[in-house]
Automatic annotation (TrEMBL):
The lineage of its organism: Bacteria, Pseudomonadati, Acidobacteriota, Candidatus Polarisedimenticolia, Candidatus Polarisedimenticolales. Keywords: Flavoprotein, FMN, Oxidoreductase. This is NAD(P)H-dependent oxidoreductase. GO terms for molecular function: oxidoreductase activity. Residues 1-143 form the NADPH-dependent FMN reductase-like domain. Belongs to the SsuE family. The keyword Ribosomal protein does not apply. The keyword Flavoprotein applies. It holds the Pfam family FMN_red.
Length: 174
């Protein structure tokens, strides 16, 4: 089972990256072939619906998405929605997402933006027939320890999500 774990925060002290790392460890420990993609390490152009598709980093990411059976998206909540780095990546990689199983984890400043993952889910379901794992992890500041590690409770929820992603993704990939 080939799973791409995307860390979509550009902040060097990102909390959602810590969630992505936890999921990566769980998936790897469960025998999945899990690949970590940190968008902070890419300099992707803003999607312009044209020449940006020819950018080498955009082409590389599109191949990565195509080759994965499933993906875990970890992202920051900005302005009550997923941060634009994730949306830009989705715009650049487009139909490579077709039919993937997708799980989501996110980090937010407060509790009020808990619907933020739904815009990502809607787009992936309606545009690309993705199957969205029907649970996500929404973590806020108090869910992280002083060193930035996720609390035990949030860590366990990330593990449960990773297990579900693997279970559903494996079933659907036949
Ligand atoms: C531009 C910006 C917008 C934000 N908007 C929200 C928001 O609408 N709701 C919220 O709960 N937190 C918001 N936050 C707080 C972030 O979600 C929080 O810092 C989170 O840890 C970001 O994820 P990251 O640490 O992985 O980068 C915002 C932060 C920034 C920088």
């Amino acid at each position: 089972m080939n799973i791409a774990v995307f860390s979509c925060s550009l902040n060097p002290k990102s909390k959602s990256r810590r969630l992505a790392e936890r999921a990566l460890a769980r998936l790897g420990g469960s025998g999945a072939d899990a690949l970590f993609i940190d968008l902070a390490k890419y300099s992707l152009p803003p999607c312009d619906g044209g020449s940006a598709y020819g950018d080498p980093a955009a082409i590389e990411l599109k191949e990565t998405v195509k080759n994965a059976s499933a993906a875990l998206l970890a992202f920051p909540v900005y302005n009550y929605a997923a941060g634009s780095a994730l949306k830009n990546m989705m715009e650049l990689t487009g139909d490579a997402w077709t039919g993937k199983t997708v799980g989501m984890v996110c980090a937010a400043g407060g509790k009020g933006s808990y619907m933020a993952p739904m815009t990502v889910a809607n787009s992936l379901m309606l545009d690309f027939r993705c199957v969205i794992v029907p649970r996500f992890v929404y973590a806020i500041g108090e869910d992280f320890e002083g060193d930035g590690a996720p609390s035990e409770e949030i860590g366990q929820r990330v593990d449960e999500l990773a297990d579900e992603l693997l279970r559903i993704g494996t079933a659907l990939s036949g």
